[in-house]
C-alpha cells in the first residue's frame, strides 16, 4: 500500500497551471505550454549540435521575455526560435552555412516562417535590452539541469 494519494496527471497539470496563473497573472501562457516550448527548444538545439550552455542561455532569454509578459499564443514559437538563434549566434562559433542550417531546422520544427523570424529577432534583442552576455549565476541553474538530464 501507499500513503501518497493518486492524482491523475491531467488534474496535477491543471492545478500546476492554476497556481502559476495566480502567481503570475500577467503571463498569458500556461506553465505547461512554457515547459513544452522549452523541451522543443532543447530538442532542436541538440539536433543541431549546440552545447548545453547555449541552450541554457536561450532558456534565460526566453524566461526573461516570459516574465516581461511579452509572449502570447500567436508569438510564442517565434520568440522561442529567436531566443535559440540569438544564443547560438552569441555563444557558438557558427559560420553562415551553420546558421542557415539552424534556421532551416528551427523553421521545420516550430513550423514558422523565416520572413517573420528575422524582424522578430531584432525585437527580442531590444526587449532583452541588448543584454545577451549573461552572468554565470543566471545560466548555471539551467546548465546544471540540462547536464543532469543528459
UniProtKB/TrEMBL annotation:
Q: Name one Pfam family in it.
A: Cyclin_N
Per the record's keyword annotation, is Kinase included, yes or no? no
InterPro entries membership: CABLES1/2, Cyclin-like_dom, Cyclin-like_sf, Cyclin_N
Domain Cyclin-like, by residue range, is 39-121
UniProt superkingdom:
Eukaryota
Q: Which UniProt keywords apply?
A: Cyclin
Regarding protein family, the annotation reads: Belongs to the cyclin family.
SUPFAM superfamilies tied to this protein: Cyclin-like
> What's the name of the protein?
CDK5 and ABL1 enzyme substrate 2
Acetylation among keywords? no
Gene assigned in the entry: CABLES2
Amino acid at each position: 500500500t501507499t500513503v501518497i494519494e493518486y492524482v491523475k496527471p491531467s488534474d496535477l497539470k491543471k492545478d500546476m497551471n492554476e497556481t502559476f496563473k495566480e502567481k503570475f497573472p500577467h503571463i498569458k501562457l500556461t506553465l505547461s505550454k512554457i515547459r513544452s516550448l522549452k523541451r522543443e527548444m532543447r530538442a532542436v538545439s541538440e539536433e543541431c549540435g549546440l552545447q548545453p550552455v547555449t541552450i541554457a542561455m536561450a532558456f534565460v532569454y526566453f524566461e526573461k521575455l516570459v516574465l516581461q509578459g511579452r509572449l502570447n499564443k500567436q508569438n510564442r514559437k517565434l520568440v522561442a526560435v529567436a531566443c535559440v538563434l540569438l544564443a547560438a549566434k552569441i555563444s557558438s562559433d557558427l559560420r553562415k552555412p551553420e546558421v542557415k542550417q539552424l534556421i532551416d531546422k528551427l523553421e521545420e520544427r516550430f513550423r514558422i516562417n523565416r520572413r517573420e523570424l528575422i524582424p522578430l529577432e531584432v525585437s527580442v534583442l531590444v526587449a532583452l535590452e541588448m543584454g545577451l552576455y549573461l552572468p554565470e549565476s543566471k545560466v548555471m541553474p539551467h546548465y546544471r539541469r540540462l547536464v543532469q538530464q543528459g
